[in-house]
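Final report, section 2: Outcomes. Of the targets proposed, Cystathionine beta-lyase is the one most frequently requested by collaborating groups, and we therefore present its record in full.
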Amino acid sequence: MSTSDDQGVRPATKLVQGGRRPEWTGDPRLGGGVVNPPVWRASTVLYDSIADMKARGHATHDKLYYGRRGTPTVWALADALTEMEPGAEGTLLYPSGVAAISAGLLALLAPGDHLLMVDSAYEPTRLFCNGMLKRYGVTTTYYDPLVGGSIAELIRPETKLIFLESPGSLTFEVQDIPAIATIARERGVLTMLDNTWATPLLFPALAHGIDVAMMSLTKYVGGHSDAMMGSLTATRTVWPRLRQAAYQLGQAVSPDDCALMLRGLRTLEVRMRRHGENALAVARWLAARPEVGRVLFPALAEDAGHAIWSRDFSGASGLFGFTLKGADDAARARFIDALQHFGIGFSWGGYESLVVPSDPGTIRTATAWTDADALVRLSIGLEDPADLIADIERGFGAMAE
Ligand SMILES: Cc1ncc(COP(=O)(O)O)c(C=O)c1O
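The predicted structure is given below as tokens.
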């Protein structure tokens, strides 16, 4: 565990240095260390004596005890993520982003509680609320992502948590996170944010008043589309509850996957910069095309969320959407099938570009999605944007045929 501080070390430096504690990267008996924390695979941990076993049973999470409680490879990743969030007490790791969301909600809610969930949330987040949480007696109200300070009117005496996702990963509305977080704190309600789009590099969530910052590390932190993991990074007040629940639920991650995540994390700053630049180039080009209805990307000056986004975020990642003017399902499929530089596949945040059709109208309940044009989501990778643009132009040609 390391409490995040701000001793003048900037985020890009933290990404390089985070979690590389000497006791995890070296052994004094060998006279030196290595750059990366080695992969410590373990189920069984061995003790010197029964007294030693008893002592370590009461230790905090960064003492070897049993494989499920982690090894230095796991702690190094958790530590590095904690250091990226000023104001954080610690980070817990889960086998996927969805596992992090559901474990966080289970840890912070109890029967009879009320949850405010943003209507633009990732669909499996909603499924958990409508399924398991409901079964356990937690009521969910979905709210308009643009509610801002009016969230106050939705808070009930039994409201315990407000869940945010900004920008929404299908429809890209930008929430007024500071306004919501301020009201939540005043009313004694916790906040949890799905911060996968921005990562703490572009939006340090806890510094903006959020209590629990969630990420699917599967996306930008991993960055190479070959591993899955999720994280919750939390304030001092909330973190012990999350840790206790993670232990009780038996949540554990593989040290090999942690090593992949740590490798991704080291280059996050350069990749994010390029993802953002490439996405902006493609989005600007799309915005000027007659085939396009609208582009949903807060980094564009004309986007409805641009003012709040530029106030709160220090940059953009590479995920955004756009509508195909007058296109139906079949035309959208012709467009997508013709693309050669975009893989058709779920997930996002990897170095390679991806495309998926999306249909938010069938998912939302608090706010209607009224755009009749077919929606497409792009995850812009690290290719040359000129090639991506040429590819999309080819797609438009195929769509018209
Ligand atoms: C916004 C968002 N949150 C969470 C998740 C879940 O992450 P994972 O796929 O690692 O379970 C996803 C996955 O697509 C996502 O898009």
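The chain has 14 helices and 14 strands.
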